[in-house]
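Example for tutorial group B:
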C-alpha cells in the first residue's frame, strides 16, 4: 500500500440522493475521512458508513483544504466534498492550490481525483425548462475573493455579448447591493422583459422555482441558496417554462399554421445566413452579382421602387462612391441580399417573444425565404405552427397599390392568411406557405417591395406630394436598396421628407432626413411613442445630395457595429455620445409641475 493516501474531491450535485453520480457514491464509500462544510455533510449523511467527519464552517475553506492534504499525506483516503461540481466555485481549485504551494508533483505526491457533479447551472436550468441552450456563462457575485470592478466588467461583457448568464452567490445577508447593481447593468443591455429564473435550493427540501423578468426579479426572494439565470435576447417563456432557442433564427410570435422546414432545406449554408460559411459565400458572390447588375435597365421612372428596378441605380451609386469601408460593406451586404437567386438572405433579427412561440420567416429573396423556413428551426417542440411573414409596399414614396397588386395579395392570403395594414404604408402578409421562394417571386413580379419584418432598418418616405416634389426620390430609393431590410440591433426607421413641411413626420423617427432648398437636413434619435417621446435632434443642415446617403450609411454601419442587441437607436446615440461625427445633446430636463388638484 502506498504510504500516501488519496484526495477525492467530490461534487455531490444539487443535494438529493437521485442526482449524485455513481462514482461520487463509490468515492464517498471508499473514503476514510470526510471533510466539508457543515450543511454539506448533513446533506450526504445518509450515504456515510462510519467515516471520520471533519466539519467546518462556511468561511474556513482554506483550512479545510489544508486539513485534507495533511490527512492524505498521512496515508488516509480523504473525501473533500462540494455541492454541485467541485470544480465550479468548489473545493477542487483550493485543494490544488494548497498542494502547489507545497511543491506537490503528480508522479510522487498524493493521488488526487476530482469527481464531477451536476453544477447549479445545470440543476437549476432543468427546473426552469431549458434556459441554457445557447452560449452561457456563470458569474459569481461574491466579491469576497474577487474585486467588485472585475465582476462588473464580466457582467458587462456577458451582457453585451448576449450570453445566457447564471449568477451564483447572488446575495447573502451582508452582500445585498451586488444583485441590485448587476440588474441595473443588465438593464442597460437587455430588454426589461428578458426572462429570468430564480431557483432556490434546487432538488432540496425547500426548493423554490420562480419565473420572472429582468425588470421584476428583485421583487422576489433571492438568497445564498439561489441561482439566478438570465435569458439572452431570444429566450422566451412558454407555459411557465423558460426556453432559449438553440440558434438565432428569425422567429416571430404568431399562432397559426407551421411552416415546417423541408428536410432538404436543413443544414444548407443558405439556411444559416449568420454562419461563417454563408459570409464567405457572400464575399465570393457579391462581386459577381454586382457585375451582373450593372447592365443599365433604365432607372425607375416612378417612385414605385421595385427591387429589380432600383438595383441598377443603387449599384451605380455604390460603385461611383469610393465609400469608406463601412459604407461599402453595407452596400455589398444589401446588394447580396437583394440579388435574385443570391445566396445571402436579408437578416431580419430573430425575436421569439412571449406566449406563442411559433416561427415565421421574414424574407427578401428566395434564399431568405428558404433561410427563414430553415430558421423556423422546427420550433415544433411546442407543437406551435409558424407562418411565413413579409412586409410588402408599392414603393418607398409611392403609397398607391394597384388593383392587380391588391388582387395578388388577396389571392396569396387566401382563406388562411391575413393582411395587416400598418401605419407606415406597408401591408404585412402572414400566410401559411410551403414555398416562400415562389411567393416572394410572385410578389416581386407584381412590383412590390418585399421586406423582412422584425429588427431591421426600414426606409420610409412621404409621397413627395404625389411625385410633384420628387427631387429626393433617388435618395429614398438608394437608401431603400442599400439599407432597407438589413438587420438592425432594434427595428429602426429611416424617414425622408421631400420638403420642409416635413408633414410625414421624419423628424420624429430614429433617423430623419428633410429635403429643403436643395440640401438635406439630418435629424437623429427621435422617439415617436411612449411617455418620453421626443423629436430627433437636428444635427446638420443643407447636406449636399451626393453626401447624404454616405453619411446615413456610415451612421447605420456604426450602429450595427456598436449597438447592443435590442438597443434602440436613440438610446445608442445617447450612450455613445458621437455617431459618425455627430454629437448627442441631452434634451432639456423635464420641469416638474406641482399638481393643482388631488392630494
Ligand atoms: N460548486 C457549486 C457552486 C458553489 S457556489 C456548484 O457547482 O453548483 C454556491 C452557489 O451555488 C449558491 O450561492 C447558489 O447560487 C448555487 N447553488 C448551489 N447549490 C444550489 C442549489 N441546490 N440550488 C440553487 N442554487 C445552488
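The residue assignment follows.
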Amino acid at each position: 500500500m502506498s504510504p500516501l493516501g488519496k484526495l477525492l474531491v467530490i461534487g455531490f450535485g444539487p443535494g438529493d440522493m437521485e442526482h449524485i453520480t455513481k462514482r461520487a457514491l463509490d468515492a464517498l464509500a471508499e473514503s476514510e475521512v470526510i471533510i466539508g462544510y457543515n450543511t454539506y455533510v448533513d446533506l450526504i449523511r445518509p450515504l456515510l458508513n462510519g467515516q471520520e467527519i471533519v466539519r467546518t464552517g462556511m468561511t474556513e475553506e482554506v483550512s479545510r483544504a489544508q486539513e485534507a492534504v495533511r490527512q492524505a499525506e498521512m496515508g488516509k483516503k480523504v473525501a473533500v466534498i462540494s455541492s454541485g461540481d467541485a470544480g465550479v466555485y468548489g473545493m477542487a481549485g483550493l485543494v490544488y492550490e494548497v498542494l502547489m504551494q507545497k511543491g506537490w508533483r503528480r508522479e510522487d505526491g498524493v493521488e488526487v481525483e476530482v469527481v464531477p457533479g451536476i453544477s447549479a447551472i445545470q440543476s437549476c436550468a432543468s427546473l426552469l425548462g431549458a434556459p441554457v441552450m445557447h452560449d452561457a456563462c456563470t458569474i459569481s457575485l461574491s466579491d469576497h475573493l474577487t474585486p467588485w470592478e472585475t465582476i462588473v466588467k464580466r457582467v458587462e461583457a456577458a451582457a453585451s455579448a448576449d450570453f445566457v448568464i447564471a449568477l451564483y452567490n447572488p446575495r447573502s445577508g451582508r452582500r445585498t447591493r451586488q444583485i441590485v447593481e448587476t440588474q441595473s447593468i443588465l438593464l442597460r443591455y437587455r430588454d426589461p422583459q428578458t426572462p429570468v429564473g430564480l431557483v432556490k435550493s434546487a432538488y432540496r427540501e425547500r426548493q423554490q422555482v420562480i419565473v420572472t423578468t429582468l425588470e421584476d426579479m428583485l421583487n422576489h426572494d433571492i438568497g445564498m441558496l439561489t441561482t439566478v439565470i438570465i435569458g439572452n435576447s431570444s429566450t422566451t417563456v412558454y407555459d411557465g417554462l423558460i426556453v432559449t432557442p438553440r440558434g438565432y433564427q428569425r422567429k416571430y410570435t404568431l399562432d397559426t399554421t407551421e411552416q415546417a422546414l423541408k428536410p432538404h432545406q436543413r443544414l444548407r449554408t443558405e439556411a444559416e445566413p449568420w454562419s461563417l460559411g454563408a459570409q464567405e459565400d457572400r464575399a465570393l458572390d457579391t462581386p459577381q452579382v454586382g457585375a451582373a447588375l450593372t447592365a443599365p435597365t433604365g432607372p425607375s421612372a416612378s417612385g414605385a421602387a421595385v427591387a429589380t428596378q432600383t438595383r441598377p441605380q443603387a449599384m451605380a451609386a455604390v460603385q461611383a462612391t469610393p465609400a469608406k469601408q463601412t459604407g461599402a460593406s453595407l452596400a455589398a451586404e444589401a446588394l447580396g441580399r437583394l440579388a435574385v437567386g443570391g445566396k445571402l438572405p436579408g437578416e431580419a433579427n430573430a425575436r421569439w417573444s412571449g406566449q406563442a412561440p411559433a416561427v415565421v420567416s421574414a424574407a427578401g429573396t428566395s434564399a431568405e425565404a428558404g433561410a427563414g423556413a430553415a430558421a423556423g428551426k422546427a420550433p415544433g417542440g411546442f407543437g406551435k405552427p409558424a407562418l411565413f411573414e413579409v412586409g410588402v409596399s408599392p414603393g418607398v414614396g409611392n403609397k398607391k397599390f394597384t388593383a392587380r397588386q391588391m388582387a395578388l395579395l388577396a389571392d396569396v392570403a387566401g382563406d388562411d392568411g391575413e393582411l395587416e395594414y400598418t401605419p407606415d404604408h406597408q401591408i404585412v402578409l402572414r400566410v401559411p406557405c410551403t414555398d416562400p421562394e415562389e411567393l416572394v417571386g410572385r410578389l416581386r413580379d407584381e412590383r412590390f417591395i418585399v421586406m423582412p419584418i422584425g429588427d431591421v432598418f426600414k426606409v420610409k418616405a412621404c409621397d413627395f406630394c404625389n411625385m410633384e416634389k420628387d427631387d429626393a426620390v433617388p435618395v429614398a430609393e438608394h437608401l431603400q436598396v442599400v439599407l432597407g431590410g438589413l438587420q438592425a440591433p432594434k427595428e429602426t426607421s429611416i424617414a425622408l421628407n421631400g420638403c420642409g413641411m416635413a408633414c410625414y413626420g421624419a423628424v420624429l423617427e430614429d433617423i430623419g432626413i428633410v429635403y429643403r432648398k436643395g440640401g438635406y437636413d439630418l435629424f437623429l434619435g427621435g422617439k415617436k411613442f411612449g411617455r418620453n417621446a421626443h423629436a430627433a435632434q437636428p444635427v446638420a443642415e443643407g447636406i449636399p445630395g451626393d453626401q447624404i446617403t454616405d453619411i446615413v450609411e456610415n451612421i447605420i454601419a456604426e450602429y450595427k457595429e456598436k449597438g447592443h442587441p435590442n438597443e434602440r437607436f436613440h438610446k445608442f446615440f445617447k450612450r455613445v455620445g458621437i455617431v459618425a461625427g455627430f454629437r448627442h445633446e441631452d434634451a432639456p430636463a423635464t420641469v416638474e409641475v406641482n399638481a393643482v388638484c388631488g392630494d
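The two ends are 85 Å apart (CA to CA). Compare this with the pattern of hydrophobic and polar residues in the output above.
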